[in-house]
């Protein structure tokens, strides 16, 4: 038997949607057990009212931090201090940070330098430095059967819910993402054999070593499905554990 992979979940409630916490916990279950669950905020503020029931249902410990000065909250500092303290006391195997605030980027760098994986979750508008610093960053709007925050709020008012799965980014739009395409091509080239074919599993491993990208951020459940949506690459042995990919620039028809 192997020891449980333990994750510390720290939530910046001021910069995270309460409606997505179940999807985040479900996603983290693929990595290990979330043994520490804390959410930081000034819980006297009406803006955080939507979090209260979610905290109870998900067994998340609310960490109270009053706003010490007007228009400035101290929750970020409290979260960062606790993360460092937990690193040395509870010694979790990984951290999950839920926020759309790039101020946490130095904290992510510190935790990763100490050998911990950091799984980031935030809105699509999250600044690139925070996204890139994480071991893996997942856009919460694209996670699971997401509903937009506007739809969720309206549904709550009406006493109904209308979940809808976010539309996948089209292959044409994916091809215009030069950074993503270069990442895929570089990873395929590094893993390819003499004939230009690379095991998708090896390609994904190389992607993870150099980027926090997640195919679900584009509406695809796996890298294989994302690669297939772009006609710049060719796949063979689909449906098997030995599925391979090649860059069409190699001249293969």
From TrEMBL:
InterPro entries documented for this protein: LOTUS-like, NYN, OST-HTH/LOTUS_dom
Gene3D superfamilies tied to this protein: 5'-nuclease (3.40.50.1010), LOTUS domain-like (3.30.420.610)
Region of interest (Disordered), ranges: 145-172
CDD domains: LabA_like_C, PIN_LabA-like_N_1
Domain HTH OST-type: 176-249
Pfam families in the cross-refs: NYN (PF01936), OST-HTH (PF12872)
PANTHER family reported in the protein's UniProt record: HTH OST-TYPE DOMAIN-CONTAINING PROTEIN, SLR1870 PROTEIN
The protein, known as: HTH OST-type domain-containing protein
Protein species of origin: Nocardioides luteus
High-level lineage: Bacteria, Bacillati, Actinomycetota, Actinomycetes, Propionibacteriales
